[in-house]
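Summary for the funding panel

The consortium committed to producing paired sequence-structure records for every protein in the target list. Below we show the first two records in order, beginning with the earlier of the two.
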Amino acid sequence: MGDRGSARSGSLEDADERRRLSTLDLVGLAAGGVVGSGWLLAAGKAHWAAGDNAVWAWAAGGALMLLIAAVMVELGIAVPKTGGLIFLPLQAAGPLVATVVAAGLWIVYAVNPASEAVAMVHGLAYWFPSLLRNGEVLRNVAQPTPQSMEHAYDFSMTGVLWAVVFMALIVGLNLLPPRRLIRLNLFITMVKVLVPVLIIVCLGFAAFDAADSCKPEQVWYLSGRSGTAEHLQSQAGHLSPLYVVLGGAVIYAYIGFQAPLDFAGNVKRRGMGEAARLRWAVYGTLVGAFLLYTALQYVFGRHCQGLTGNMLESPYSQFAAAATMTWLAWLIRVNAVLSPMGSGIVFTHALTREVAALSRAHLTHRGLQTARRASFRFRGGEIDAYWMILLVNFAIGLAMLVVVRGNWEELVALNSVPTLVVYATPGVVLVALRLPEFGRTRQMVHLALSATAFVAIAVVMLEAGWPNVWRGMAAVGIGSALLLGLPWLARRDLPFIGGMFRRYDARDHVSRFATPGDPAVRPVLLFLTHLAVIVSCTLLRHVLSDDLALVPQLIVALSAAVVFPLLVRACRRYMDHVPPTLPEPRREPQEVPVTAAT
């Protein structure tokens, strides 16, 4: 009987292990999330903004992402939890901070598929210019009119419908069984990474005319901004690399590396173990992306004198065509549709797990992750796809698409700033938890990394510029107000709207602001004050002359350095009142050597 029970236990453990994610699966998620539309659309904007210094923007963005990743990986290894980006701030700082983080994360993950769907339409417009209102005009802007960049990429009605179709395709693919979806994503990722590698190898060594170097003002039409040619040419090359990091979509091109950490509780345990697999996936992807993006920017700067002025075609496919590499040009054109789709699939898949964690924590409607709405039967099998969450996220992405009228740059701004808001919290959580498995030296390293990342994130957000920051922060503010306000409305039978919210069963946390001494209030007030300082200094930077630009930078850096330890202390005070419930990393049993005596 005992042997049978042991065999059954072993078979269940084997089955569980087979369902878990391998190193290759995790790399597919990380690289699939990172390599999307950013590399296709950001190089021209970066060169317009900073010229040859654009390479340093990719280096600065990569360094910032590696710093943030180091903090997030350490936290994910110590506390492996699927949906941890919401669960861990909830445990360490309380439901109010977790709600702000959840609002930012939900916006990031729901907007990404919309932005990738827009990028897919841009890629398809090469063959079908009618998808854009000014499609025929954008075929050649070498002789521009002063109005040619006003709402240049506005969709026609057909373009809008195709964007909705692509969003629906991304959501529909996430209804596949999880294992099949992971395999599909791995295949798409290998293809879409191969194409930029071929660009670097083939075009990096191709002949070019060094005497006819490309100046930033020559690519004014790739800036992504509205305005006349004269105005955009006057601004070309005069923006700092730090502006390009966020305002030029560099950060947008790097985000997605955290996808393995969204599934940290579902990693294979045998062999090299969970920790090594997470490190390989995250660090390997970021280092690879850094090398890929800097090399692509070098290729752009080396060949951009060969641009034809066709805004419907990727610059890289124009370079390939100019080098008589027709086969490569066609691969790039196809990848301009495939690459964004792959990234959208990863973000949509990851969001289902994060929103499920949000729902389980009663921070949003609990019905989103009940068994009836988390899975469905198909051909006799049960598929865990969180279909209700997918529908809600599709509606949110569709609303964002309509609000910005399909503008890719505005979607990037709505994506990038909330991303940094989310990335600011793991360092606070890591230091506040004081995890016992880490020695004192390692805890000091965590403190240095986390504090540096917190300050660096604040400075980069400041450098993004007022238009990007206010849009992103407004989105976080609206999302937080909805998540906090809907439970409060649901408990009040208000005229006309009372019936609409009566079944919304998230817990009411906004009332905690009125409770004297509530330990969850201080962390969120400190965090919101920190964000308010960034927004205020960004506005100050916007109205001040360039000679005084250093003043808001110093204020933001100093404010972040002061707020970080205060926020850590407030989190520890919260955990003193409400002890956290944390999963522990699984420790493999030590093998007992077999001897004659045993």
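The next record, for a separate protein in the list, is shown here:
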Amino acid sequence: MSKIPRKLGKTEKDFSGKILKILSQNANRAFNYKQIGAILELDDTKSRNEIIKDLKILASQKKIIETEPGKYLVKAISQDYYEGTIDMTSRRTAYFICPEFGEDVFIPTNNLNHALDKDKVKVYVYNRRKGKRPEGEVIEVVERHKTEFVGVIDIQKNFAFVSTANPKMYTDIFIPKDKIGDAEQGDVVLVNIEDWPKKADSPFGSVLKVLGKPGEHNTEIHAILAEYGLPYDFPVEVEVFAQKIDTTIQESEIANRRDMRDTLTFTIDPKDAKDFDDALSFKKLENGNYEIGIHIADVSFYLQEGTILDDEAYQRGTSVYLVDRVVPMLPEVLSNFACSLRPNEEKYTFSAIFEINEKAQVINQWFGRTVIYSDQRFAYEEAQQIIETKGNVIPQEISITGSEYVVKDEIVEATLKLDELAKILRRKRMAEGAISFDKVEVKFNLNEQAEPIGVFFKVSKDANHLIEEFMLLANRKVAEYIGKQKKTFVYRIHDEPDESKLISLQTVISKFGYKINLKSKGDISKSLNELLQDVQGKKEQNMVDTLTIRTMSKAKYSTENIGHYGLAFDYYSHFTSPIRRYPDVMVHRLLQFYLDGGKSVSEELYEEKCVHSSTMEGLATNAERDSIKYMQVKYMQDHKDEEFLGVISGVTEWGIYVEIVSNKCEGMCRIREIKDDYYTFDEKQYALVGATTQNLLQLGDEVIVKVKNADLVKKQLDFHFIRKNE
């Protein structure tokens, strides 16, 4: 059925909100009742009298000023106007988030006035009396959070509409006939909102790009990237620029660096990795201590400031790791070749080199540019084999060469000593209050068509922890070295958890017999670690892990150092992954600049870059999460006839969320479709309660479900509730 944008109604009797909106948008101009009536298209006597009355009431409330008889101006500064952001719900209402309010302000649908999710807006707040929930009306959209949206196009004779799968996007987008482009009926498209006329229900837009047909694999992956404004290829001019960079190793450049080519060096990475941005070197010193080098690809040597390549890398901010592909921050010529620390090749690196004793204490440190030669590349599984067997034979089934092979004794000795030191470093961190998040990662086995044919869980083992501890050491010591000089730097910071979120977590986990000690910062981190340890291997583990992570503040980049709560570090930065994170490139540049005697740089400039980097990281994380959801839905499409054991991971008034134990896929059983009783939601018990049987369906209960619907476009699973697993 065709839709045409309709005009706003004209029968509203209380015009106070609309009057305030008109006067606020024209803050320096006075209006009389006739001018306001003309803007509102109201010319009947009854409505005009209502406007006159409302103007007098607003003036008596001191919300507007009568500048001359019958002419009114909005008060220059009013305590009832605030700027903040819109947080849409999926019910077409919203909350206004503003630092000046202790609670969020409710915005009814008819008061949104064209504001969309996360827009920066100016809001008039009313109902501020004690005991009443504050409500507001959007007076002005100050800045759109985004104007590009992904959706499916429905083409009519003279126009089209694009509807999105985003539950927070409450309107479709009207596309005039001349702005449909090459789109065909039912295509997934990327559109840009160009205008939203005052009297139109829907914003007006144009098609920027056709992504393909709904449900097709590449279409949906490209749609995920486009939804977050992320690219999936490089502009031709950037690729050409990267190809022209001289990536040969020059003797003249080696002369400027510390030569580490004769020191035993190797890499440990995932078996399917293509970019190796870190390597470890190991040497036993005559005094009994160890020289351990953390060598990081010297990206900033090739990535020069002020070039189109650097501009592109900065805009991307990070590589994006989707289920079936990586969208790199840097073109392949750098990420997979020149900057990748591949075995048996000389490479330029930026290094943190430490003299460490048997107690894993740092005796001396050195930072600077180096040249290395990697003697060996290991997958984590191979390094784990050495750690577990203390032997040097890598069996065929885990060998990245495809054949059994023998590792040199000196590399085995180095790996075992590094593992021993890493375990001491890890124990120290935990004792000082670090929190151990070893959350199970869901991974997919894909066939050649990128179809999911199996699910497996990635668990961190000793080899992963070995690399992690030495990367953490380098990141911490670099940040500490600059931080103590009080110079502008790019820190990775993490604030303490929000107490109200911890109390909510306590309420949920108490149902499983767990508790958190909230007395002090130290008690909190200790009891969180105990909780994460206690749930390991239990059916509720993934749910408790997820809820615990949600209580944490988000880590971000900043020039203002407040430390890193989760790692229990006073100083922390990101130094170790410049191939895939732009903040690490900034850290390398600043570190070298300060090593060369440079004075502190502009804090304001770098804070702006930090905010941009944190934003891009957030978008990449959302895209990665969406790609996992998409793959889970795709995987479950082929398992519709099977019964699955699941755990109730969420309870709401409209149903229960169930996470399948064997593959961590989550879907919803709607309350009206649970047929063995009539259920209602009991908020206090986090449960659905059967009216007749008093049966409880609560968090953590095991249930049997079947797939009812797998929606690839919305990335949603709906389950049939079969029974409770008694």
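Regarding this second record: The first helix runs from residue 16 to 25. The radius of gyration is 30 Å.
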